[in-house]
């Protein structure tokens, strides 16, 4: 057997790549279109709960056909108390494989990938589902994915007003300072949920709750807004789906199953079902289903996170790493 080498990108390598906003958005949009055309395989995520701390592992699996032509498995920990140890709540590893032979192709630190691709999914969703004239963003949550939500959304919409809120004042203040510096504009820190989201054109709910709690009230949502809830534990009222003209998900297979997710109760109550679902986002990106059609549509996007996004962004990073000579080759066999 010929020697087999795999590419390895650690956290420092990923940072050195300096993947820019447009590269992230292009990778995510390409993966969504591939999924929408039926040129991908995706399995519902699995959960592993070790039972030794307040957290769990998510295991995401999928494959993309040519031109990417890779299968992938990502394991990402979701441990909400990690901040007490000076660690991110989400630490992840991505394994990429040849879908024809099973040969491992690459191992990447995927903590940054998780944050970037989640923000990319939010932003591409807004590209197709939010009003083009959207100028006010209300964002709940200040964890890692929050930064890329705001940054990539602002890349597409150039907001006049960005509001943020999170449970811990020190967290939201630091988050606002970072965003203000990187985006070159004022970011408003709010003391409560209502003043953050009421009247916003785009509302993103990325809270970190210990248990479901309806903190985002339906009557705060502006008609014509796009609402993107994706917290592990639900923070929305059951009535939220009742005001929506369209409900869109990233993958219905994984949204309808499992114990976690911001709209789990809505699925169990039959408020979100195959009958009430408008489309998967990939179908809209691929041009098979319409996105926003009128200015007055109020639309909901629920994304659980796709392995396909991880694979596509990992592939983009590997291509850039090869061009720049970043990373290591490891002997596997």
How many helices? The count is 10
The profile of the biggest β sheet is:
8 strands, parallel
Choose one word for the global shape: globular
What's the CATH first level of the largest domain? Answer: Alpha Beta
Helix content: 25-40%
Instruction: Kindly provide the radius of gyration, computed on alpha-carbon positions and rounded to a whole number of angstroms.
Output: 19 Å
Order of H and E elements: EHHEEEEEHEHEHEHEEEHHEHEHE
The chain-level structural class is: alpha/beta
Rounded average pLDDT: 94
In CATH terms, what is the fold-level topology of the largest domain?
Rossmann fold
Task: Report the end-to-end length measured between terminal Cα atoms.
Answer: 8 Å
Main-sheet strand order equals 9-8-7-10-11-14-12-13
Compile the SSE list and pairings.
Elements: E1 5-9, H1 11-17, H2 21-36, E2 40-48, E3 55-64, E4 70-79, E5 90-97, E6 104-109, H3 111-129, E7 136-140, H4 144-157, E8 161-165, H5 169-183, E9 187-189, H6 193-197, E10 202-205, E11 226-229, E12 246-249, H7 252-255, H8 264-268, E13 279-280, H9 281-285, E14 299-302, H10 307-324, E15 328-331
Helix pairs in contact: 2-3, 2-10, 3-4, 3-10, 4-5
């Amino acid at each position: 057997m010929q020697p087999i080498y795999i590419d390895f990108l650690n956290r420092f390598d990923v940072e050195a790549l300096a993947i820019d906003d447009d590269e992230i958005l292009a990778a995510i949009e390409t993966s969504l279109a591939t999924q929408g055309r039926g040129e991908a395989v995706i399995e519902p995520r699995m959960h592993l709960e070790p039972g030794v701390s307040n957290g769990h592992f998510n295991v995401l699996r999928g494959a993309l056909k040519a031109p990417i032509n890779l299968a992938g498995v990502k394991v990402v920990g979701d441990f909400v108390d990690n901040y007490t140890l000076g660690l991110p709540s989400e630490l992840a590893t991505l394994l990429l494989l040849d879908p024809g032979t099973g040969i491992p192709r690459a191992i990447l630190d995927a903590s940054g990938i998780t944050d970037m691709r989640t923000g990319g999914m939010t932003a591409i969703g807004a590209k197709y589902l939010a009003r083009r004239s959207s100028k006010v963003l209300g964002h709940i949550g200040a964890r890692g994915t929050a930064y890329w939500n705001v940054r990539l959304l602002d890349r597409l919409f150039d907001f006049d007003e960005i509001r943020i809120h999170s449970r811990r004042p020190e967290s939201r203040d630091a988050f606002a300072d970072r965003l203000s510096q990187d985006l070159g504009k004022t970011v408003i820190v709010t003391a409560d949920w209502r003043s953050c989201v009421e009247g916003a054109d785009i509302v993103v709910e990325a809270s970190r709750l210990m248990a479901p709690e309806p903190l985002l009230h339906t009557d705060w949502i502006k008609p014509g807004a796009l609402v993107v809830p994706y917290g592990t534990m639900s923070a929305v009222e059951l009535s939220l789906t009742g005001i929506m003209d369209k409900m869109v998900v990233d993958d219905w297979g994984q949204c309808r199953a499992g114990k976690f997710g911001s709209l789990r109760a809505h699925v169990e109550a039959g408020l979100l079902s195959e009958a009430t679902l408008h489309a998967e986002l990939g179908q809209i990106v691929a041009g098979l289903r319409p996105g926003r059609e009128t200015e007055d549509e109020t639309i909901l996007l629920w994304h659980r996170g796709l392995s396909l996004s991880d694979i596509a962004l990992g592939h983009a990073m590997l291509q850039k790493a090869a061009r720049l000579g970043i990373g290591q080759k490891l002997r596997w066999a």
